[in-house]
Amino acid sequence: MADTGIRRSEIIERAESWLRPSVAHSTTKFHQNEFGIYRTDCWGYVSMAWGLPDRRGGVDTVGLAEISTMIGQDDLLAGDILLDARHVTIFHEWADRDRAACWGFEQAAGTGTVRRLIPYPHATPRRYVNVYRGRLLA
Question: Does residue 38 fall inside a structural domain?
Answer without folding.
Answer: yes
